[in-house]
Every structure is written in C-alpha cells, then in structure tokens.
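An instance noted here:
***
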Amino acid sequence: MTKKKTAVTGARASAAPKAAATKTAVQEAVSPVALQLKKWDEAVRLFTQRSFEEACARFREVAKGPDSQVADKARSYLQICERKTARPELQLKTSEDHFNYGVERMNARDLERARFHLERALGLEPEGDHILYTLALCSGLSGDGSGACENLKRAIALEPRNRIMARQDAEFAALAGQFPALRAMLLNDGS
C-alpha cells in the first residue's frame, strides 16, 4: 500500500507545477480590453506631456480596440493631437512675405531658416537695403562675420543711414565686438 500512496503523492506533486504554470499563463494573458486601457493610459500621459506626435500613434492604436467608448474618446483625442501637430503650409510669395518670416525666425533664433528666407527676399528684391541690413545681422548672429560685413556694406551703399542705424543697434554693437572688420566698418565715417 505504501507504493500506491507514494504514486498518488507523486502524481499530486507533478500536477502542482502544471497548475501553477497554467495560473501564471492566465495571469500573463492580458485581455484585449485591458491592453486597450493600458495603451489609453500611455496615450493620455503623452498627451499631458505635450508629446502630441507620440500620443497620436497611441490614440490610433486605442481607437482600434474592442471597447467602443474608449475607442470613441481616443478618436476625439486623436483629432486634437493631429491639429496640434499639423504644420500650416506657408504661402510666402513676395519679398515682403519672405522678409517678415525671416525676421520672425531670426527673433526666434532659428537662424538657418531665417537666413534662407532673407536670401529669398533678397533674390526677389535685390536692391532692398532693409533686407541686406537684416541679412547682415542674421549672418553675424550665425557666426559668419564676412557675410555680416559684406551684407552691411551693400546695405550702406544703397542707403548710407544704415551705418548710423547699425551703430545704434545693440545687436550690431555686440557683433562688432566679435568681428573686427565689422567694427571698422561701423566706425568708418563713410568718406
């Protein structure tokens, strides 16, 4: 009888790990709704952190989930994210359009884009002394001392008052400290 008892005890012992493994597998298997809610939480967290592009991707996943109420909310948030990430296409056609946008970009210290648009403005209006003056400033702020000097020289040749304006401009004064050629041009009386 002891052999029979041992066999039964052994069967129970081997069944215990199988039952534990099955219980773990069931716990690890996440329902589609629970997965959708987990993605929802991630999307909302990204949304509140203002990471709209990443949140868009998460809300798209949530919108495909089985819970229709959560999916509807996700679609609403997705529309908000898409509006926040949409970049309006600029319709810059004239020299003035490019100049104004270039000034705005320069003030935001997006100097590469500012320079691009100021050069486009200059291409459309080659005798625009105000464009050359601003391009000189943008060049200097970008670290291009020779570009600053050349553009300011052309601006002064077109309109001599640009020299006086540059002398009184705090940003040009700072650049004159960095670039000796620019300092010499500002100190020159124009004769």
Observations:
- The chain is about 80% helix and 0% strand.
- The CA atoms of residues 166 and 172 lie 6 Å apart.
